[in-house]
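User: Please predict structures.

Assistant: First:
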Amino acid sequence: GAAGGTIFPEPIGQAMSWNVTLVSKIASVIATEAAAIGVDSVFAPVVNMMTDPRFGRLQEGFGENPIIASHMGRASVLALQGGPGNASTYLPEGQVCSLGKHFGAYGAAIGGLNGGPADVSNRTLHEVYLRPWMALGRAGVRAVMPSHNSVGDVPCHANHWMLQQKLRDEFGFGGVALSDCDDIGAVYSFGMAPNRTVAAALSLEAGVDWDLQCGTDP
């Protein structure tokens, strides 16, 4: 990469190895190299369930199997952060904060369209799309990025049920929720708020802690 780090196979290629130990070793090297240049957090792992081959970001995750994604996602979190921990404990030297992406049901977008609504049954949502997130929560992942899409017709960035009741209360997540690119404004675009100020308030109340802005869009 630009900082001179080691380039590894993409996560979908790592998943094809069926080798959780290998994935852990890769994440450990990434943490060491990132920490060495002053980076304290990485946007990984990605545990989107890629169930539609039309979805254009298949290479980012560990495939369409929630069991594989759960084990490899958990291994990545533990290796990046240096073992189990939570947002109230210091990272060991040479480790980085793991930020999991994208919560949730991102790969379930209708028509495979990036950011399209996830129209799935409650059973499929829990057995497929949320299963890896339970593994990440229990592993102590310190940060999470909500996804572009809506679940149950509610944008994930304003979805209190998803961010608070499922992720924090049930899965044990205790870290920081960082918005995806300009998605606080997307709450307004979805028609849930009359303006961006109200959109920000809805997102904050739902459980988003920090806004990642992209470009110059106010």
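Second:
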Amino acid sequence: MKRIAIVTGASRGIGREIAKMLAKEDIQVIANYNNSEKKAIELQEELKKENINIDIFKADISKREDARKLVEYTLEKYKKIDILVNNAGISEYKMFTEETDSDWNRVINNNLYSAFVMCQEVIPNMIHNKKGCIINMSSIWGQIGASCESHYSVSKAGIDAMTKSLAKELGPSNIRVNSIAPGIIDTEMNKHLSLEELEYIKEEIPLQRIGKVNDIEKCVEWLIEDDYITGQIISINGGWSI
């Protein structure tokens, strides 16, 4: 029987490529999106041309009710969940003294709370089946902090702490939980950076290049196939955090 994977924030960027990679590995993917319906449909149609079928599901997973509907849909249709990739998230560049309560809550809810509720909703099925793999998408800023992105940094640091806690709690049920902490990756999230800014960042990175989505994909594939890695925060940043 096929393995079943939910990928949140799967219509764009890293999430989109992870969903494609998993689907091509003969894993049944439920690709979650919220605002980018057109891109989600395009992803589904692109894979159909290769005779690969994925489900797309609209849900604002920063809301418990929507997260629950996503999980219920998956269980009703496929009866199990083997893999959860918590990729959905947003970023915002703002000085700490200018952050509003609304800014803080929006980023924390979209990045940290969404991962919390998705884990809570899928874990009972994984415990029942005595197996599971959860991959949380963190960030270099969760480890070393980013100027003018305190709320984003806090949300990612929270994901890393939750990852370690859940790995200890769920290990006896054969459920592995890990985080991937990318540095700067060539996606839409970083399109606001100028060529000059990108060159400056490259100079700070020992490998002298911006990361590619494929660098993340390979790690996701490894974490899914491995059966003894858990509780790890895996940095993929070209040595930027050294």
